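Here is one chain, start to finish.
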Amino acid sequence: MEKSRASRSDEWESLINDLEARRGLVLEMGGEQRVLAQHAKGRLTARERLEMLLDAGSFCEIGAFVGSIQRGALPVAPADAFVMGHGTINGRALLVGAEDATVMGGTIGVGTLAKRLRLFDLARRTGLPLVLLLDGAGMRTRHPNDRTLFIPDDLSALAAVKGSSPIIVGVMGTCAGHGAITATFADHLVMVEGAALFGAGPPLVHALTGMDVSAHELGGVQVHSRGPRSSEATSSNLPTNAANYEGIIDFVASDDQGAIAELIEFFGSLPVREENVGDSPDGSIRLGPRELPLNRKKRSDVDIRKIVPADSVTQWNVLSLIEEIADDDTLEVFSNTGSVVTARLLFFGCELVVIANQPAFLDGLLESDGAYAAAGALEFASESNTPVLLLADSPGLAVGIEAEASGVLSAAQVLLSAQRRFTRSTIHVTLRRSYGDISALMGLAPFGGQICTLALPGARLGEFPAETASEAVRNSGDSAAVLAHTEFGGAVDGAEQLLYDSVIAPNELISALRSTMRLL
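Its structure:
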């Protein structure tokens, strides 16, 4: 029996409370003592810098939960020492990333590399300007228990941005190694007095060369400023070809506030182009797709907690959510006869094609007709150059004799191929379940061209639902309970691994999607 909408709203409460508690821990950064130590140096924290840089309330964070889960001996690192996302300056959209010196000295771990790769790929895809605030000690020492097989190549991704989107960098503190190389890609580089920029710090220089040199001598503003070389910067301690180094700093600020003011002023001086037209030889930037209205054509807003069930077993009609997403009188349903609903709508005036699992039919199991309907919607979106919103809530592909006889596997291949051909932007939201191949079939691929991947709290991932998997391998008792508990944490666990950009409460869905429109 379908639950009342009021009881659905109540069931979300514990999930939302847990989400808020996790967010609070991330916002603490490296803890009170390290924040105080940062302030004692006359420096702002990464989050304070971004708050000063961006329009109030415009920052949408990506990857906040990366590094937030304790895994064996590996320590927790809130946001993995790199706060990033997108926002606006005087209404103009941009992508931002800030190293957090209060967390492990702002060092770069594997999670940080993945976040940087994601950020730089978004800059390349969207054509939006990229602002980086650097204050970190370079690559993090790998823990012996860290057996990561894939190391993201973020610097190559940044090289792909160079020349197509402006890269604006502020060196706010000590910037070493990997982060220092990042600074050299800047089209406009601002450095704070007392900051330092070098490939290796004084201890490593001494260990390798025996040379005693201070951070200031090694990479202070006098070393990297443009113009004539000072006698200090060309001392006998430096190689003879140092006099030929032209420097990379465009502006020296006395403090963080001055640096951020310069970044804002330079950003505002950039010319604007209204559409993303690929590489731009004149260095112009993209404003965003359009000026989105503050309000939309909507007679009333429904509490989404009363639409989407918090549990994973209640059947519900996804069309009611699609109707809530759509501006009034703009929804055109293409297909609503099987396991997938496809439609076209306007959202704050922006056209979207929607592809959604339908839990009211076969509990959302993806059967052949649904896969073909989804593939057809992707083909339409490709021909009309329309972004796609994918709403996932499915326990997997349909199974059994009838499903196999209907060619469900071939239909899945057709859908995957349609996704591969689709080059426009996609947005993915896991509402409750994304089991088995549904993640791939519903486009959950943060490094595969998506501009946004979201999940509601309590969203469940895995090869099979925990109960089904336990039954299949004859697990019982404690083993089954552990499997179910792990599955229940799928949304945050997925966000910790950057499978999702963010985990959001149901009533944050509309605002999160609206903010994402600036990336289209």
